[in-house]
TrEMBL record, chain A:
One of its GO terms (molecular function) is ATP hydrolysis activity. CDD domains: ABC_PhnC_transporter. One of its GO terms (cellular component) is membrane. PANTHER family: AMINO ACID IMPORT ATP-BINDING PROTEIN, PHOSPHONATES IMPORT ATP-BINDING PROTEIN PHNC. PROSITE patterns: ABC_TRANSPORTER_1, ABC_TRANSPORTER_2. Pfam families: ABC_tran. Transmembrane segments: none annotated. Keywords: ATP-binding, Cell membrane, Membrane, Nucleotide-binding, Translocase, Transport. This is Phosphonate ABC transporter ATP-binding protein.
Length: 267, 555
């Protein structure tokens, strides 16, 4: 298990090869240690599945990557930048290149799919916007293309709270595409979806990752979905990395035994 | 199709680039929602013009008000024994009124409820009583009852009681109607009588919500009791009226300070009690579903500590209620003496004498209320954005704004009106300023609550897109907030209207002055006409506000 350390070269050896690089990361909320000495790397264009029981620290890890949380010890480099040392403006610039998909989608339910997608391009605009028509035409065209890529172009003017969960997550993915991201972080994007929608959403994510050479770090609850979609699997348990392997050499049973099916509160 | 070979899959048509496809369709519903604020702003303009509000007049008013505030310093407290008894009398009026109202409301609510099969006529009468008592403000009843029962807390307690009947019974009816009908049907199927059904299946389930409705009402009634004295109906307001009448502004400031302190203490207590009782307060913003009290299913029947405490609390409540009613001095002789007055009042009321003055007065009240609610909502929104957790930009400023709102809310509207009348003279200008302040505080509280209830994920999503703070606000926070903003704004109009009706009692414009004068000159036919117009207008606004709120917030 300790062998994984050697698998990660330092940034100096091979700059730009990694979209995400975490070394010896330690994170606690008050007295509760959530992440403990975590090493993790995501290569450019790679789809990494992050599995682990709930409470293992998956969300916390993802939030460290785009600077929503900051580490106590260790280092995080996202697309070559340490989010913790960024100014507010620098952090915004970094986040522009990093898409984030939430389990609860993060769409504004009262607004249309189109407007929600357009908001992904806010960082390229100076002023606040309200209403689809307040966005430049070029962005509206781009939004429509991105909606088309996730198969939601026909519902573009439907209110998001009238869409199904799977449709909402597809809209959320289209929103991240508006950023032109180099990296997409997805926090249990399919945890509240039915099996068919889950498969569809992950399929779209993987296809986008391939076509646009976008790195994806996606936390998942279900072992099978992770194995079917990821290039590499990282398993977290109680804040520690307990497995880091290419998906094609891994079987579901072994993955399950390694990270356990407990609730993560043990250990 | 026939010209041979497996045709390549046609490329997906990318016809999505036509300009029309990029423009969202127009929705009538969103136009209507957009029209509401526009109408509000237009009516505010009309009201400002009518009342003569302008930047110079506001600046002059500010100067005069500051001069008055300077004269109020240092505040001077009345002698402790008198002060204490005035405070106690205020509290007892509220307790007695709320208690009496609760006892009357329960059967009334069952009679009015849809789900308990009362006869159509009974239900209609019950509903009418509920509406009439609800839409006429406490102070209007107080003026009438002072005529009937004479000066003192009896008139005040009864006024509080009658108005609260409408309020409590309405909420209780809703709760009863929303309670799951199945258990009731099960018991009815066993052949139980209607009252058995009510007592054994409905009461236990609606009890927690009833408790919180009554506590909530008590809170409001204590605020109301503090100003009843201004029309001679007892409580600490009598001392305030005396001090102001004698131009003793230091003393008035001291009494206002006591009122604020009293209301702040109660605010703290009521928050703590509600937490303890664990029952949800009927929720303004959502559908008012009521959570059951702590779900710990315990089947023991012995006396544990909790049961003893509960029993003690019930016993103390009963004792307190009896003491409070007794403190109103409802001697039989007094009630008998009141009978001729009451008969004179009731017979004098028919036929109502409508006049254009009444319509103009009510219109003025309405305009004052709308204008105050609009400008108050705007100011309240700013305060709420500075205060709400997760949105406020700077913690110390948020704390300061929160404290400001609590203190502003601690002063009853009528006290603001009294002060502005003292500073700026009689008329609707003083009344509008008073309502403006209280609407600002009220709106700030409502808006803060609803902003804090908003889903935080869309906000985080836009932050993670790299949007700026203003972009996050307009993109994620504001669209989510629009229904609550409009709905609560309408609620503020509704509440402001009830206040603006009575502000005239202290000479601050609107219909209240005419109302009080008609009672003073025994022109009860005018009084009844005014009450009818008030009832119609308040009921109309309430209905519109509720329908719009349901439309906006329900779903
Ligand atoms: N903001 C926070 N404050 C305090 N504790 C937190 C916070 N966020 C997460 N935690 C705790 O960190 C642990 C890991 O949480 P999380 O990263 O959400 O796990 P996962 O996403 O794998 O379910 C949990 O025990 C959780 O209670
Ligand atoms: Mg999580």
């Amino acid at each position: 298990m300790r062998g994984r350390r050697s698998a990660i070269p330092t940034a100096a050896e091979e700059p730009g090869r990694y979209a995400v690089e975490m070394r010896g990361v330690h994170k606690a909320f008050g007295a509760v240690t959530v992440l403990d000495d975590v090493d993790l790397a995501v290569r450019r264009g790679e789809f990494v599945g992050l599995v682990g029981p709930s409470g293992a620290g998956k969300s916390t890890l993802l939030r460290l990557v785009n600077g929503m949380h900051t580490v106590e010890r260790g280092s995080v480099r996202t697309l070559g930048t340490d989010p913790a040392t960024c100014s507010r403006r620098g952090l915004r610039a970094l986040r522009t290149k990093v898409g984030f998909a939430f389990q609860q989608f993060g769409l504004v339910g009262r607004l249309s799919a189109m407007e929600n997608v357009l908001m992904g391009a806010l960082a390229t605009l100076r002023w606040p916007r309200y209403g689809v028509m307040s966005y430049p035409r070029a962005l509206r065209v781009a939004a429509l293309e991105n909606l088309d890529r996730v198969g939601m172009a026909d519902q573009r003017f439907q209110r998001c709270d009238t869409l199904s969960g799977g449709q909402q997550q597809r809209v959320a993915v289209a929103r991240t595409l508006m950023q032109g991201p180099q990296l997409i972080l997805a926090d249990e994007p399919v945890a509240s979806l039915d099996p068919a929608s889950s498969a569809l959403v992950l399929d779209i994510l993987r296809r986008i990752s391939r076509e646009d050479d976008i790195s994806v770090l996606c936390s998942l609850h279900q072992v099978e979905l992770a194995l079917a979609n990821a290039d590499r699997i990282v398993a977290l348990r109680a804040g520690r990395v307990v497995l880091d392997e290419a998906a094609d050499t891994l079987t579901a049973d072994r993955l399950r035994t390694v990270y356990g099916t407990g609730d993560g509160t043990d250990g | 199709m026939a010209d041979g070979g497996p045709a390549p899959a046609p490329p997906r048509p990318r016809a999505v680039l036509e300009p029309g496809r990029l423009r969202p369709p127009v929705r009538p519903a969103s136009l209507a929602v957009g029209a509401l604020p526009v109408a509000g702003v237009v009516l505010t303009g009309v009201a400002f013009w009518w009342i003569g509000v302008s930047v110079p007049s506001l600046l002059a008013g500010l100067g005069d008000t500051l001069a008055l505030l300077r004269r109020m310093l240092p505040p001077d407290l009345p002698p402790a024994p008198g002060l204490l008894s005035a405070v106690v009398e205020t509290l007892l009026i509220a307790v007695a009124g709320t208690g009496i109202a609760t006892l009357v409301s329960l059967p009334l609510a069952f009679a009015a409820s849809r789900s308990h099969g009362s006869a159509r006529l009974v239900r209609g009468v019950a509903r009418l009583v509920i509406v009439l008592t609800r839409v006429v403000p406490t102070l209007v009843f107080a003026i009438l009852f002072v005529r009937v029962f004479g000066l003192g807390p009896l008139a005040g307690g009864l006024a509080v009681a009658v108005h609260s009947v409408g309020m409590i019974a309405k909420l209780a009816t809703d709760v009863i109607d929303e309670a799951d009908p199945l258990p009731a049907e099960a018991v009815r199927a066993c052949g139980a009588r209607r009252w058995h059904v009510a007592v054994s299946t409905v009461v236990p389930r609606v009890l927690p919500s009833l408790v919180s409705i009554v506590l909530y009402r008590l809170d409001i009634n204590i605020r109301a009791s503090a100003v009843l004295g201004l029309v001679g109906a007892g409580g600490i307001g009598v001392a305030l009226q005396t001090a102001l009448g004698g131009l003793d502004y230091d003393r008035a400031a001291g009494i206002i300070g006591v009122i604020i302190a009293l209301i702040l203490v109660l605010e703290v207590l009521s928050v703590a009690t509600r937490k303890r009782v664990g029952a949800a307060v009927p929720d303004r913003t959502t559908k008012g579903h009521v959570l059951p009290v702590s779900a710990g299913a315990r089947h023991d029947v012995g006396w544990d500590r909790g049961r003893i405490l509960r029993f003690a609390a019930v016993a103390a409540t009963v004792v307190l209620f009896v003491v409070s009613v007794w403190s109103l001095e409802p001697a039989p002789q007094r009630l008998l003496d009141a009978w001729p007055n009451l008969r004179q009042l009731l017979t004098g009321m028919w036929p109502p004498a409508f006049s254009s003055d009444i319509v103009l007065g009510v219109l003025e009240s309405l305009l004052m209320a709308i204008a105050a609610a609009v400008v108050g909502s705007a100011g309240g929104l700013v305060l709420a954005l500075l205060t709400a957790r997760g949105i406020a930009p700077w913690r110390p400023l948020a704390t300061a704004a929160r404290a400001l709102v609590v203190v502003l809310r601690g002063v009853p509207d009528l006290v603001y009106a009294l002060l502005f009348v003292a500073a700026l003279g009689l008329g609707p200008f003083a009344g509008l300023l008073a309502l403006w302040i209280s609407c600002t505080a009220l709106a700030a509280k409502f808006f803060t609550d609803s902003l804090e209830e908003l889903d935080a994920v869309p906000r985080q999503a836009l932050e993670s897109v790299g949007a700026t703070r203003p972009q996050v606000f307009l993109g994620a926070t504001w669209p989510q907030f629009v229904p609550a903003f409009t709905g609560n704004g309408l609620f503020v109009v509704d509440l402001a209207l009830r206040e603006s009706i009575v502000l005239g009692i202290v000479g601050a414009g609107g219909i209240g002055y005419l109302m009080q004068e008609s009672v003073a000159t025994l022109s009860y036919d005018v009084t009844s006409a005014i009450v009818i117009v008030i009832a119609v207008v308040v009921y109309g606004i309430e209905t519109i506000a509720q329908a719009a709120r349901r439309q906006l917030l329900g779903r």
